[in-house]
Design a protein that fits this description.
about 625 residues, mainly alpha, Transcription Regulator spoIIAA, 6-stranded mixed beta sheet, 26 helices, 8 strands, about 60% helix, elongated, transport
Amino acid sequence: MSAGDWVELLLPCARWIATYSWSEYLQVDLMAGITVGVMLVPQAMSYAKLAGLHPIYGLYSGFAPIFVYGVFGSSRQLAIGPVTLVSLLVSNVLSSIASPTEELYTELAILLAFMVGALECTMGLLRLGWLLRFISHSVISGFITSSAIIIALSQAKYFLGYNIERSSKIVPLAKSIIAGVGNFSWPPFLMGSIILAIILLMKHLGRSKKNLRIFRASGPLTAVILGTTFVKLYHPPSIAVVGEIPQGLPKFHVPRGFEYAESLISTAVLITGVAILESVGIAKALAAKNGYELDSNQELFGLGIANICGSFFSAYAATGSFSRSAVNHESGAKTGLSGIITGLTMGCALFFLTPLFRDIPQCALAAIVISVGISLVDYEEALFLWRVDKKDFLLWTITCVMTLFFGIEIGVLVGVGSSLAFVIHESANPHIAVLGRLPGTTVYRNIEQYPEAYIYIGIVVVRIDAPLYFANISYIKDRLRQYELIVSETTTSESYGERIYFVIIEMAPISYIDSSAVQALKDLHQEYKSREIQIAISNPNRKVLRTLSRAGLIELVGRRWYFVSVHDAVKACLQEMAGLQGCVPWVGDHQGFAQRQLRQQRENEFSPTQAPLLPQKV
């Protein structure tokens, strides 16, 4: 690699800097960066409160990590910073270790950002991003939906005017809300409800009309300004405010509290997973829309460096935001400069505006969080899954219910475990199709999908639609043996008089075969040979054929029984059968054995004169 390639690999920002068009990009990047910055300032304070931290740490999390990501991140539109899900996870784990009022709580939140960054960097450097492909989208959707409900309920205390038990489970939250209803206060409830309505209305207008797009980004800021103005004018004693916020940029300091690192590992892994799923998913979608390639592993590394550096400037864990990234894209952002401008906007807020934040109502910040929570409840996804795939709907339901009633960690663990269980089950029980010949062609297709396809008496063509390896070979072997035995049992029936002489295995879909599968095929060959049944192999790829050759299976089966196509194999079997006494290969208009079994299965009828049903994996 050339020096330029190394620079682009280590510093992805060099790609857009080298081709930056100041006349074309600067204005849109400037407007997008400022727009997202205006949106981020109130959101950052709200999310910090959700995490159990002072609002200033939300502003810090929206400052240093943004600059670092602008240099090392590969997405040009992703807007990173504090987000709701990560904030909820931080609150959930740290509240069991220390009180939010203690300095230790803040130190552990910063340490957690360092640990998350280290994990993200490690995954990026080792190129382990592919591991997340095993987590179903339905699991992610179910987790986000249930978390959004918990997030909204956890903020209810700022609306209701009394404290609520801090919990990530819906039952304790509901009990606490009901138990304290006697302390209900109307002023914060009315103000919070009005502010929430304003935010939702502006968000709706921004989405529905292009010329009002700025409303979506400015909704939180508008609501905060209105709430703060009301507090300054009337000083209502029953409405809690943010209070004093330190002015100026965060100071450099090394994260502390490493003696608690062991108890934070599981949460760091969970936050890393959530952060990656959010960020990489958004970044890939935005890259596709804007016509450039995105390296997932480089993205992980960029996020990791941003969190590590952010932890040295009092930031808690940051990741990509759905809402801010969408606004950044819709505002026309072309390069990572828009993110750097967002960071500068946040820096200006820290330098000049923090005295104005003192009178922001707590219920206004809570309204911002609740508005985001409402948008995260993905009921449309649940309805879609119910219509399309009941299995995915089951995964969605399991994850959502477990997260709501047993907590975030249990919900994620059960959801991911269920997703992996489905993957393993599908891998260990692959689809096996019996093939028949389409009339007037030499094409062979699944007789379940093509009822008009016919088969030859004495010949069975089977296609295995998966790699053959230790986890699924026993299932495949049992299916082949079961099919042969069922057909053999019908040889005593005068009405059928059919018997299998050849089993042709179509190997075109098989991309890989391991030693366990090879040994199983050897055993199957010996079993078939003892019953005078010949195996034929059709169309294996070079890799599979090389493995079979090294294992001695080619010589064992016989070189003459390896074919380029299914039709070649069938013709050879027919020629061989022509010399067998009492066996006349037949092709005609009436149905062969497999067709009769499929018809019988569809009609769901059983009688003593009919052959047993052929087990089929549809």
